[in-house]
UniProtKB/TrEMBL annotation:
This is RagB/SusD family nutrient uptake outer membrane protein. Gene3D superfamilies: 1.25.40.390. Belongs to the SusD family. It is found in: Cell outer membrane. Residues 119-232 form the SusD-like N-terminal domain.
Amino acid sequence: MKIFIKIFLAGCTTVLFSGCKKYLDVTPDNIATLNSSFSNANETQAYLFGCYSNLQGLADVRANAGFTASGEVLFPINMQDQTTLGGAGGDAGFNLMRGLQNSLNPIHNFWDGYNQGLKLWESIRMCNTFLANVDQPRDVQPFDRARWTAEAKFLKAYYHYWLIRMYGPIPIADVAIPISATSEEVRQKQQTLDSCFNYVIKTLDESIAGLPPAIQNAAAEAGRITSTIALAVKAEVLTTQASPLFNGNPDYASFKNKDGVSLFPSAADPLKWQRAATACKAAIDAAVAAGAKPYELRIQGNIVNMSEQTRQLLTLQGAFVDGWNPEQVWTLNPRFGWQYMAMPRVTAEAAANVFAVYSNFSVPIAQSEIFYTKNGVPVSEDPSWDFAGRHQLRVGDEANKYYIKQDYTTVKGNFDREPRYYSSVAFDGAVWFGSGNTNDNNPNYVNAVNGYASPPDRVRYNATGYWAKKLTHYQSVPGQNTVWQTYPWTFMRLSGLWLLYAECLNEVSGPNAEVYSWIDKVRTRAGLKGVQESWAQYSRNPSKPSTKEGLRQIIHQERRIELAFEGQAGWDLRRWKELQSVLATPFQGWSVFNRTIAGYYQLGTVYQPSFGLRDYLFPIQEYDLMTNPNLVQTPYW
């Protein structure tokens, strides 16, 4: 047994709670190279950057349930009969919306690192090893040692937080388990949920003091953690802890560990919202002090003509895709590599080369309808907007020529929408500034998609007729000589912090002038009037912003609009306990294989998503439960 434990720990070193056999054949590099890894400053820093590895991996949206299971995008492949969605490869995460999650071989298995999951326990082990050895090298300057220690603590806290968000109560891996540990010491138990959250907050607080507020040398250090980032993450962590999924959720009242200890809090604690509000304000203040501010368009390339309408759309989109701009509080180094999935074939050259543009990221019609009308209220609430007739045909006109191609037939639902709709979503007939065309007065440039006039094949196509335009830089030009203008993936923007703060304030005290002001900051940049004015003038429900429940709905929708396709909505909808209702509605789209206008615009169901109560938390693989009998399965699995 002692031999077994030593072999296990050589591969695990700390709390890897999955099956032992998965690690028996792993070379115990942590033992053989431990001294050399911390022999000098260069080797020590290199080990720290290894701790960053899986953080950078989170920039891949395929591994982010906030993207793949949000209801914002679906991924069709080989949909001959439009009933089969997803596969076992890079698109596996989209199967979370099909009810295909399971405990034998979980999708997005971050516990073990399978099925688009990352080995976060391994990363936590590396952080603990780093913290235990960072004092060894004598040539490390005190400032660097303090900063590196703080970075490792942040990473350890964030990896724990990601696991908590997925699994709820988890074991806490604060130190490396020694080689001499007994089998029982290796078999860690889940801690109570609040203990887990509190550990993350404590560790973040420890990291903040040793981190710089901003990166001074972007060329050498872009992507490294700052105290501003740590404060923003703290705000998100506390808001998540205060949210309905984790704050006195009755669905998990009977969830206990093997000792009979309840793992979820029995009642909601409203004071958690106050803690979160305080943290949000501190994060905003720190971000502003570090230079954060709303994005202003940075023109790139030669522009022939750009209207004010187009400038506004590129500003809204650029806040996300123009890398390292002042609005981006936290940006990861890896470049977003899936523009060809999000882009329609807007040129003849692109249409002739389907391998350059796949277009598979398909936006359900329901997602396109969360964006407001031009009056800044929901499409179902605006009496001046023909909600009942939104699927009827209408021809593009002069007044809408910068959004919809003039004289082009599309549906009425694409007219008279807010600017964020046109900057985030593309549709049949939509004007597409870019992809080689930098003149928005060019009437012959039908940058309008893979609609009825451009037949797709049965693998590389968009299943609904709506694209996540926001994810494609206007300078990207696919075709025979494809050029992608890549950009780093942004985790947090200043506008997201504003809305997070507004949400917390509303939960603490209900509607007031301060809450409105933070929401209106976002709306003003989007070209909309303030919340109170918009609902008073244009909504069938003018009193909605005056109640806590009504303003909560507005804030939730505002976050889904502002942060659409940024990998946030899936996590927000989970913590709000709203994802089940969003995924209860069939995903609908147009008849994209039909070659006539009338035939194309026949509404149909692409598929019926399936998401139950059990899907709010992820299952632990059953083999892990057999290996570690001190673990308990997440509820309803």
